[in-house]
Amino acid sequence: MRTLIKNIKELVGVETLPKLRKQGKEMAQLETVKDAYLLVEDGKIKAFGPMSECNGTADKEVDAAGRLVMPTFCDSHTHIVYANSREHEFVDKIRGLSYEEIAKRGGGILNSAKATAAATEDELYDMAQRRLDDVMRLGTGAIEIKSGYGLSTESELKLLRVIRRLKENSPMTIKSNFLGAHGIPMEYRGHQEDYVDLVINEMIPKVAAEGLADFIDVFCDQGFFTVEDTARILEAGIKYGMKPKIHANEMAVSGGVQVGVKYGAISVDHLEQMGDAEIECLKGTETMPTILPGCAFFLNLPLSPAHKMIEAGLPVAMASDYNPGTSPSGNMQLILSMACIRYRLTPEEAFNATTLNTAYAMGVSREVGSIAVGKKANFYISKPIPSYEYMPYAYGENKVERIFLNGIEI
Ligand code: NIG
Ligand code: FE
Questions:
Q1: Same domain (yes/no): 63, 25
Q2: Hey, what's the torsion of the CAs at 365, 220, 255, 73, to 10 degrees?
Q3: In which residue ranges of the chain is pLDDT below 70?
Q4: pLDDT (0 to 100) of residue 363
């Protein structure tokens, strides 16, 4: 089956020599082809180039006149399997409570864990599936999904089984992440090492036995898990073949970046609190620093020093952190806008941060994240828009008209 997208006003994010990620100055490079075609064969990108070089036939032709074609977004950090929204805490925060104060009272993650434990696997699946469908319609083609609203062996397994079903049934590229160490259940307060033992001795082996997780995650931060807890959990996960990918430096300069790098984390995420030592420690590593603009926006947190990291030669990725407590939106078009408006990334840097670099941060940048021959044909056709800069500029507006995943329109 061959599909030809023709008369594309501008084909954005093409790579002739595909990179696994872009770092430092490379982040400013975004190759495009004006008046272009894109040929898809059997779900993969077969060829692309200027219309003047378009020859051959296809089973299906799509005219993209006046429209841009771009690789779908990759969202490398989400928590979309949960039962309840948390708008009351949102109001508490407006009235002056901090995220940490709410968590200390047993709200926050524990609030969601309670509601999520009470929901059946089918109910959770239906809710998560709807969220997945919504973000797909907004242009996301690959997504990483974490557990972490279970916090008991049984509930964590239930969440991960939901993610497995999503993987089986969705055309999106999905990776699963075991985040048993997301919050400290009330009954373990004061002796959290016992909860860490439970994660290590019971949860990880069971999760691994069912092959439920690609990654292992820990919320390593002030008021949550310590650097020592994190090291123990990551070591245990690695033994079972799970790759580390952690939450670090949201509340404080927590040592999270260093422990993540030490254990070869594929990404360290959040990074609102970054000193020079953290930037230094990321240099020359395989770890992708990942910023979560929706969380900083929603909680009014300080902004990660994105520019400083890029100037230091690092790569930067930006993901949604879609979750009920700190970022109740998975709209990657909005993240693209925030990248430019709040972090002063150029549109080119922002595109790379939300496509190729997030693909790297979930271990799939050989398959997705750019328009390159042999990669999955995951792209969207925009509405008629003047330029790719319009994408981040017109924040809040849905600029995506048609979406193709694995070469098939969804
Ligand atoms: O990435 N920071 C930790 N975990 C989530 C929030 C979870 C919640 O509040 O429900 C995050 O922001
Ligand atoms: Fe998160």
A1: yes
A2: 20
A3: none
A4: 98
Write the CA distances from 121 to 132, 162, 316, 321, 330, integer angstroms: 16, 6, 35, 22, 22
Give the model confidence (pLDDT) of 313-372 as tens digits. 999 999 999 999 999 999 999 999 999 999 999 999 999 999 999 999 999 999 999 999
Which mutation among 146, 215, 326 tests ligand 1's pocket best, with the greatest number of atoms within 8 A of CB? 326
Ligand 2 centroid distance, CA of 103 (Å): 15
The boundaries of the domain holding residue 263 are 73-361
pLDDT for position 169: 98
- One domain, residues 150 and 247: yes
For the beta sheet containing 173-181, the strands, ordered from the edge strand earlier in sequence to the opposite edge, are: 73-78, 140-146, 173-181, 215-220, 243-248, 267-270, 288-291, 317-318
CATH code for the domain in which residue 293 is found: 3.20.20.140
One domain for residues 346 and 405: no
Strand partners, 140: 73
Index of the ligand 1 atom closest to the CA of residue 111: 10
Give the separation between CA 304 and CA 13, rounded to whole angstroms: 25
Where does 72-193 show beta strands of DSSP type E? 73-78, 140-146, 173-181
Please tell me the number of the ligand nearest to residue 220's CA.
1
Whether 83 and 172 map to the same domain: the answer is: yes
Between strands 67-71 and 2-12, the pairing is: parallel
Count: domains in the chain: 2
Q: Which two tokens stand for residue 149?
A: 């609203």
Torsion (CA) 361, 74, 404, 44 in degrees, nearest 10: -10
Residues 46 and 11 in one domain: yes
* Cα–Cα distance for residue pair 223/345, rounded to 1 Å: 31
Atom of ligand 1 nearest to the CA of 327: 12
Place of tokens 């594929």: 266
